[in-house]
Amino acid sequence: MNPATGECRFPPFVGVVCVTLFEKLSLLIAAATLAVNIMFLITK
User: What is the pTM of this model?
Assistant: First the structure.
């Protein structure tokens, strides 16, 4: 099994779930980065 895909080898339903999972993860990372940047701007 490919570690990058994980359990996403049963399309289409599990693939959709994994895609949304990755999207949520990237969205969370982007939000965290934005929050850190805003905090730095406020503390300056």
Answer: 0.51
